Task: inverse folding
């Protein structure tokens, strides 16, 4: 009896998914690891705990071994010769543990890989296989489910969002001493459609106020949709690409409906990567609008003189954490630095930074998977040490997920810092001219 | 699931320290949880937030929006962040014995 026939229907589904995706690109990445081990030195899990199971190459081998077993001739005939691995209970358990539980998909290993294996792509493919057989860890899956079922990952009803935005608007008018300051809702034809991370209206609205303040002073023609208002796409992390496509399609349809020229994304790493770079592939069509991060937009306002900032208004030393999915994986390197250099008196870079930055440990859906919390905090020590070394009192980071992880690192490693979005610091430095 | 011990008392919690069985919550639990996340001793202001979150959750099955929290407690947003260094979700909701909210928290 062939191996494939012995397979349970469930497991066969996962193997079929792998088979369907096996194009030249995937095959070559699955076949290419030469086990040099350099990836270990790039991974925050391995660097904080030298467990060989944390080596990115080991994680890659979980899926590559299964690939060899079922989809290469030599692996089918002589599995042991080539380290091929049955897709059995033991393999699956190990896959879940290291593919979901010990990787943030930060991509630093891919950058340092001696032969350029796209490790994140392989991890995502492995997650897709596991998602296919319902093995996504609970907190991550429920976050995806909430987004699918309610339209946003924190299940915020539309009325609650509207009330919250009106409440923020009232505050904005007081703050700006201008009764015309507003948060425009559902305005067809506005140039910019601004999309939030649900955690902003739910728990952390200061970043909405900050963006609203900047848009108002810059005279931007903008609005927020009260129908589709979630910049996140946790299906990118769970590995379920049909769901990732569905969530992207909703945002796409809304931007088209509202005739937006720019779909502007709140500060969110994986949201940027998903919408900006993965989205058109998922929904298989190009966007008729531009996708930008709000920090790119703020940088433009500064360059073109639409807003004026006074760095003296932010006196405390500030450092910057580069969110992996926005920077290394997303290509936004300088906007955040330009904005901070214009917003704060004393900006100190962490080392390494930009494309070589260490992950904070919160990505990959880690923040939503309670069962791996201990590892997440342990792996975050590298970032905590980096922060401490700068001596900064404020850590700015254009990603709400990173903010939450760094807040926790702050508590555990006693860093004595505050964590803010880039827009918050820019808003605090705004100078009002008579015109604005 | 894991266990934590605070002042000699054992609690079943999830990996993030949220109570596994929210119905086992009482004020003593809140007081003890607050000692572990930088919140410290619970003042009247803390209690107005914690009790409101708890009541809201018991009625609605979810944590209240921060707007409601501010309006009902009469506290300013920034005050709430100061009272609960881990924020409204991982701080106040955890102290109020809620399960961990989904999303970027």
Result:
């Amino acid at each position: 009896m062939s191996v494939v026939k012995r397979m349970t229907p469930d497991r066969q589904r996962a193997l079929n998914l792998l088979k369907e995706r096996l194009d030249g690109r995937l095959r070559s990445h699955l076949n290419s690891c030469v086990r040099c081990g350099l990836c270990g030195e790039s991974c925050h899990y391995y660097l904080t705990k030298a467990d060989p199971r944390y080596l990115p190459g080991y994680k890659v081998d979980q899926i590559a071994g299964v690939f060899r077993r079922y989809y290469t001739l030599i692996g089918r005939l002589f599995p042991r010769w080539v380290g091929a691995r049955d897709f059995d209970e033991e393999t699956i358990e190990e896959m879940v543990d290291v593919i979901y539980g010990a990787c943030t998909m930060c991509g630093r290993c891919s950058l340092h890989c001696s032969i350029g294996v796209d490790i994140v792509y392989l991890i995502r493919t492995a997650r897709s296989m596991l998602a296919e057989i319902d093995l996504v860890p609970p907190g991550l899956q429920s976050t995806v489910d909430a987004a699918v079922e309610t339209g946003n990952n924190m299940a915020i009803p539309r009325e609650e969002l509207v009330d919250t935005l009106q409440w923020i608007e009232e505050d904005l008018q007081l703050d700006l001493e201008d009764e015309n300051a507003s948060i425009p809702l559902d305005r067809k034809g506005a140039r910019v459609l601004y999309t939030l991370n649900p955690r902003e209206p739910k728990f952390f609205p200061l970043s909405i106020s900050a963006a609203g303040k900047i848009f108002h002073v810059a005279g931007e023609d903008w609005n927020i949709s009260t129908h589709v208002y979630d910049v996140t796409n946790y299906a990118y992390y769970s590995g379920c690409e049909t769901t990732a496509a569905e969530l992207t399609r909703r945002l796409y349809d809304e931007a088209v409906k509202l005739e937006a020229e720019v779909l502007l994304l709140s500060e969110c790493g994986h949201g940027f990567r998903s919408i900006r770079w993965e989205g058109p592939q998922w929904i298989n069509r190009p966007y008729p609008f531009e996708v930008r991060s709000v920090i790119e937009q703020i940088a433009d306002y500064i360059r073109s003189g639409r807003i004026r900032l006074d760095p003296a208004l932010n006196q405390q030393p500030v450092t910057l954490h580069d969110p992996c999915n926005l920077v290394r994986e997303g290509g936004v390197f300088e906007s955040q630095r330009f904005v901070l250099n214009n917003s704060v008196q004393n900006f100190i870079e962490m080392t390494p930074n930009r494309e070589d930055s260490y992950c904070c440990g919160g990505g990959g859906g880690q923040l939503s998977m309670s069962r791996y919390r201990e590892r997440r905090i342990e792996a975050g020590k590298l970032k905590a040490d980096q922060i401490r070394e700068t001596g900064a009192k404020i850590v700015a980071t254009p990603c709400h997920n990173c903010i939450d992880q760094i807040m926790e690192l702050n508590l555990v490693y006693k860093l004595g810092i505050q964590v803010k979005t880039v827009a918050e610091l820019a808003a605090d430095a705004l100078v009002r001219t008579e015109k604005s | 699931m894991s266990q934590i011990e605070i002042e000699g008392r054992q609690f079943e919690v999830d990996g993030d320290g949220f109570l596994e069985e929210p119905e086992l919550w009482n004020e003593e639990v809140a007081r003890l949880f607050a000692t572990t996340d930088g919140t410290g001793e619970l003042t009247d202001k803390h209690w107005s937030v914690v009790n409101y979150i708890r009541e809201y959750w018991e009625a609605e099955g979810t944590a209240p929006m921060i707007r409601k929290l501010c309006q009902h407690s009469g506290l300013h947003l920034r005050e709430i962040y100061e009272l609960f260094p881990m924020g409204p979700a991982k701080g106040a909701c955890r102290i109020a014995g809620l399960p961990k909210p989904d999303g970027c928290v």
Q: What stands out?
A: The CA atoms of residues 33 and 95 of chain B lie 6 Å apart. DSSP finds five helices and two strands in chain B.
